[in-house]
Amino acid sequence: xxQTQVGIxxxxxxxxxxSHLLHLQGIDSVIVETRSREAIEATIRAGVxxxxxxxLMVETGMGERLKREGFEHHGFELRxxxxxHRIDLSGLTGGKHVTVYxxxxxxxxxxxxxxxxxxxxxxxxxNTSVHDVTERPVIRYxxxxxxxxxxxxxxxxxxxxxxxxxxxxxxxxxxxxxxxIYPFGWFGILAKAPPSNDELIYARxxxxxxxxxxxxxxxxxMYFQCDPADRVDNWSDDRIWTELQARVTGDxxxxxxxxxxxKNIVPMRSFVCEPMQHGNLFIAGDAAHTVPPTGAKGLNLAxxxxxxxxxxxxxxxxxxQDDGLTNYSVMASRRVWRAQHFxxxxxxxxxxxxxxxxxxxxxQRAELDMILQSRTxxxxxxxxxxxxxxx
Length: 391
Ligand code: DHB
Hints:
By secondary structure, the protein is of the alpha+beta class. It is 36% helix and 29% strand.
């Protein structure tokens, strides 16, 4: 039977970053992943990296292309009913910023880095299952040729996303799951057009939320709040541009339009599973939690989880110290709940909620006014948006 120190299920941000951090400390790992490398590298997700995520990529030798091709953003615009207000991220946080660099670009860099360093990633595996997690865990799977394989490991890292198998290996009687579903989704597009603004725009409008983001000088990413049960086929390019323009136009500002070459609908939910561990199984990233996309915390949170986990594993192997492993869930979940609150708050403040009372509608508007009028309130938004320091 094949063996490794840390068996990792899932080659997303959590699994790849964990494998990389362990490698730098001389700890061996193997990643098994159901998707192909090509599919992973082509999947469109969010695009904002917190300052601590960028710092980690750079400090661990994965930041070269990110530094060259990512866009540093020192602020963003909150647009309310067509009027823009700048949130000066750097001014409010003592000089911090975020970097716009798409998640699949991060994954390309991490995959290339792991493979160049001799890292083992088994792509396109099937029928993954995990066993004996309270003793010496085993991962069973069929490799890409269909041959059954077994991998025995000291520790198992479940980085296999919201629908993976690892979370299910925590007995239901010990698992606590917290879920909130939002009554709206995001309609996302990629368009061939120049940027409409130097910075991202988060827009609150009577018709609903809109987000104007970017991927490059020629490709723009935009989203607008929609019915989660809606279908992309219901939306012609014309209808999409009309809706987006209606939500952001004002003060002489209009979006630059172009050919739309990708459309998708993203559901919105908040989810946490605790504890994030059982025996020698540790879950990280979307396997343990989901945030609604407003503020783009998902990838950043996955990375923060595995920073905590990698330190705990290093303490185990190098320092004969297991406190970090024992306390992994407690340590990681502090940041998880901070990000849960932030993502829920930013979502709640910016979206249209149908059917709420007039009181709630006015209260929501007052909350947004507080951000626009109080430097202290704007600071709370900015501090969370750029990313709190990793502990
Ligand atoms: C993007 C996504 C987000 O959820 C966000 O808050 C900002 C940007 C994006 O895909 O570019």
